[in-house]
Write a structure and sequence with these properties.
There is one protein chain. With about 210 residues, the protein is an alpha+beta fold. It has 2 domains: about 90 residues, no CATH class; about 110 residues, Roll (PH-domain like). It contains 6 helices and 8 strands. The strands form 2 sheets. A 4-stranded antiparallel beta sheet has the order 1-2-3-4. The chain has a 4-stranded mixed beta sheet with strand order 7-6-5-8, with helices on both faces. Helix 1 runs antiparallel to helix 2 and helix 1 packs parallel to helix 6. The longest helix is centred in the first third of the chain and has 35 residues.
Length: about 210
């Protein structure tokens, strides 16, 4: 069996990038509490409920930060790729995917692909028979590591393609929908829907709290 892990340099870079993303996401969590406090301050009959909710909101964000600063480095250290004899186990942020070569319908290596607003990097995409099976990004794995995995799959009869040019996510989806889900192929549209959902949730939370005042 062959086991591959992230290099120390890449692991630290991935942890830092996730911490930065976390601090971008936190203001969205704080928005309902801030809106309710403003409503309470501007109201003709102020109530302590708004400040209580804001305090609870701040406490939840604090607990989230503590959890994230413990969980992210730990999960980054646990990530690995293990394969041999046609069996594969890939540990990512949210668990371990186990599959056989027969579960892979195709492998595509892309030299330059940008996802999530990060700089372009090499990626290895594994398509299953119905949906994408796995996406391995060059920000986490070396070219040699991904090539070793691709070569092992190709040696077992899995179709392999190499795109040695810059490729956009929607181009991969046009090639085969199993390679790229819609949310990543159209990130702007997905982000707009996500922001709209968050705003609607904030309005709903504030309306419910005002009804209790």
């Amino acid at each position: 069996m062959i086991e591959m892990r992230m290099t120390e340099e890449r692991r630290r870079a991935v942890v830092r990038a996730n911490f930065r993303a976390l601090w971008v996401f936190l203001p969205l969590l704080a928005l309902p509490g801030v809106m309710l406090v403003l409503q309470t301050v501007l109201s003709r009959s102020p109530s302590a409920a708004g400040f209580v909710f804001f305090g609870l909101n701040a406490m939840v964000m604090g607990l989230l930060l503590v959890f994230a600063y413990v969980w992210i480095p730990r999960r980054a250290e646990q990530q690995r790729i293990v394969f041999g004899e046609g069996r594969y186990a890939v540990t990512t942020w949210f668990g371990t995917s186990r599959f056989a070569a027969s579960d892979v319908a195709g492998v595509v290596a892309v030299d330059r692909l940008s996802l999530g607003g990060v700089p372009p990097a090499h990626h290895l995409v594994l398509a299953g028979h119905r949906r994408r099976l796995l996406l391995l990004a060059g920000h986490m794995w070396d070219v040699e590591q991904l090539r070793a995995l691709a070569d092992d799959l190709a040696a077992r009869g899995v179709p392999f393609a190499h795109l040695d040019r810059p490729v956009a996510p929607h181009e991969l989806r046009a090639m085969d929908p199993r390679l790229m889900p819609w949310r990543q192929a159209r990130p702007i549209a997905f982000a707009l829907l996500l922001v709209l959902g968050v705003l609607l949730l904030c309005v709903l939370v504030v309306a419910m709290m005002l009804a209790l005042l």
